[in-house]
Amino acid sequence: xxxxxxxxxxxxxxxxxxxxxxxxxxxxxxxxxxxxxxxxxxxxxxxxxxxxxxxxxxxxxxxxxxxxxxxxxxxxxxxxxxxxxxxxxxxxxxxxxxxxxxxxxxxxxxxxxxxxxxxxxxxxxxxxxxxxxxxxxxxxxxxxxxxxxxxxxxxxxxxxxxxxxxxxxxxxxxxxxxxxxxxxxxxxxxxxxxxxxxxxxxxxxxxxxxxxxxxxxxxxxxxxxxxxxxxxxxxxxxxxxxxxxxxxxxxxxxxxxxxxxxxxxxxxxxxxxxxxxxxxxxxxxxxxxxxxxxxxxxxxxxxxxxxxxxxxxxxxxxxxxxxxxxxxxxxxxxxxxxxxxxxxxxxxxxxxxxxxxxxxxxxxxxxxxxxxxxxxxxxxxxxxxxxxxxxxxxxxxxxxxxxxxxxxxxx
Length: 411
Known about the structure:
alpha+beta, Beta-lactamase, 2 domains, eight-stranded antiparallel β-sheet, 13 helices, globular, Beta-lactam-related, Diverse_Enzym_Activities, Beta-lactam/transpept-like, Beta-lactamase family protein
């Protein structure tokens, strides 16, 4: 792994070092009082790392500290990578955003939409329009996640063996076929609902490219960007670098280690989840953010054009709506007010409505184990935060990070 550390004085890139130290002071409390085992935070500006801190334990029980090269399960921070992969194919003319996905995934040729009834006897009607590639990229396809637990269609997914895993022996193709048999939560394009849409997008990438998702990612994204430690599982000889996974159960004040959930990252999975399957490092994901911040190119490797990156990171919700108006009322780590959604990213529309100090046009996402990143093009800023705590809604880490990082901008 290439060296990764602080390579510029904060003041040289318009950042206040004293304010950045407040980030560490605040986050250290989470470890010192037992709420987190450990964490790592990176703040870079103009392509230079100005702040990089590790604190606490990657594995508390083994007294193994967080190191610069610690491996983390990034879960839904996989989604922007899958979205970039899809748009790389789009730039090659492989599909149009308005194309029905059934052209490549015939199981979606005649989707039906839930209108009433129980999980045992759902009432459905035919979809009024096909699920299109754009719907997958924007989470407006009508698909869902079993773990939402707010709608009958969520329950239908659980009854088919989907929640935080998939039925034994299922590969990605089998998962997509099963999801296509379950009624949609709403008509395609009618609402926003966080869902398995990005996993379906991953399968679309496989069919169009003729490569499995892991091979496509490795050859087309990870190798060109020098993301040497990012993959769908942690190799056996590197498992000493993998952070332990912790969960905070309702009613408990301290998290518990969960090896049953954490072991999923230790062997090649039966299915390749474009929505949440990757293991990565802070260094690797920082390089991914730099590629985006640099308009699709890093160190001579161009993945996308600047115009495509700009198009992906603008709000695509109809009428310029935010997630509060167009989305379903689901659990969220941050407020939906003032935030739209692009092609694979949340996009800040109005920081005032969002009640968070940030910039219009900042784009971001996070992972189920409380990891997070954001990119702010107007400030030439990127931030990556890593830890391993489920659920990601346990603590307001994402809003607090912005509250502490943005006051460090002084130019």
